[in-house]
Amino acid sequence: MIRTLDDLDAQGAAVGVRVDINSPIGADGTLDDDSRLRAHRETLAELADRGARVVVLAHQGRPGGDDFTTLESHAARLGDLLPASVEYVDATFSAAARERVEGLDDGTVLVLENTRFYSEEVLQFPPEDAAETHLVRGLAPVLDAYVNDAFAAAHRAQPSIVGFPVRLSGYAGRVMERELDALGNIGETPTPRVYCLGGAKVDDSIEVAASVLDSGLADAVLTSGVVGNSFLHVSGVDLGAESTRVVNDRAGDRLAQAERLLSEYGDRLHLPVDVAVERDGERVEVAVADLPVEEPAMDIGSATVDAYADVLEDAGTAILNGPAGVFEDDRFAAGTDGLFAAATAAEYTIVGGGDTAAAIRHLDLEGFDHVSTGGGAALAMLTGESLPAVEALR
Ligand SMILES: Nc1ncnc2c1ncn2[C@@H]1O[C@H](COP(=O)(O)OP(=O)(O)O)[C@@H](O)[C@H]1O
Ligand SMILES: O=C(OP(=O)(O)O)[C@H](O)COP(=O)(O)O
User: Which of 195, 227, 263, 358 has the fewest Cβ atoms within 10 angstroms?
Assistant: First the structure.
């Protein structure tokens, strides 16, 4: 059983809240998209409104990445989004951070610095060891409770995610609560269950396909994006040199597993029947039977969308992860547009993945029952895996 904010006595309490506001960062180093900040408004506003002193913990990017920045612009945007006053401090667990926490007024918010500026945060630990790290030992003494609302990072057993509930009472925030409700009972969703696996994280998606086909969770898997190209490749189709290069780049060492899936589940595993390429600057659709071509396959074609729509029209649940094509280029958005629209014919639709959710916003698509804030974490749930953050709260 996991406690929620309904179980927390917030008035006057210093509450550490781990959120996931890891966002695309523009060339000027500020936020390019604030959808994850908006997702956490409910939890942060509710705690401030109930008189808590809200201390926000979050990460941005990874060491060495060009999106590895301070949380200053995140704090400024939260200040715009929240009715409560929002301060920022460029410290996380030092004396300076503790002083600022102890000086907070009830009903106000303090955003601490990027947790990943500190080396132990990018390692993974069992909760008891995470509780002994400098971050948790330094900050826990000035907190009265801990809330984890960071569903999108729940698959990371990092100190700010799994360490605090060892020392403090732990609660699920409203985002975490909603995500666990929607994704935690995938085995009880309506059947037939159709997984639409696209995008470019081919190694992860082949793992997901294996898990949901071997476990019987999936009645059908519709492949698109680089994932679809990878299955075409292992089925013996010569995609052309460029597409084959991308497949080998992205599939890692999972192509043999893709081959096994194709031979064991050929009836449930659907592959594109046509693709779209760029020729003289235009979108040109090419039947798989007419491959190879030298141009890279950038989208699924309209015949594939139609074939997949036929499967989706009888679906009980449709689970989407990964765009069908390079939707960022208007010439190659038609596959994602058509496939995602067709998926809304299902009784219940779940979307997972940062870029997948971005594609839905970009294409102005509606009608999905649950759009997850997570990618890897959502996939872990959709394949029935447990999440370290959830186990730590339990
Ligand atoms: N055929 C394709 N060739 C190259 N890239 C593709 C293709 N189809 C989709 N993509 C890319 O996949 C990316 C998103 O994939 P992924 O990161 O797996 O999604 P998510 O973040 O939702 O898990 C998009 O940026 C899109 O441009
Ligand atoms: O964006 C995230 O993951 P996602 O791309 O799987 O949605 C989370 O913030 C976790 O970030 P990480 O993958 O750097 O640990």
Answer: 263
Query: What is the rounded distance in angstroms from the CA atom of residue 131 to the CA atom of residue 159?
Result: 7
d(CA 160, CA 163): 6
Same domain, 361 and 212: yes
- Residue of the nearest CA to atom 3 in ligand 1? 298
Q: Is 65 left (phi over 0), alpha (psi -120 to 50) or beta?
A: beta
Q: How far is CA 238 from the centre of its chain?
A: 32
Q: Is 170 in the pocket of ligand 1 (CB under 6 A)?
A: no
Note the pTM of the prediction, 2 decimals: 0.87
What would the pLDDT profile of 244-253 be if each residue is shown by its tens digit?
999 999 998 9
Q: What is the pLDDT of residues 119-160, one digit of tens each?
A: 999 999 999 999 999 999 999 999 999 999 999 999 999 999
CA distance 239 to 335: 18
Looking at the 3D structure of the chain, how many domains does it have?
A: 2
- ipTM reported for the complex, 2 dp: 0.92
Residue type, 164: F
For residue 14, the surrounding DSSP H or E stretch is strand 14-18
Looking at the fold, whether 175 and 216 belong to one and the same domain comes out as no
Last residue of a domain, one of 151, 180, 209: 180
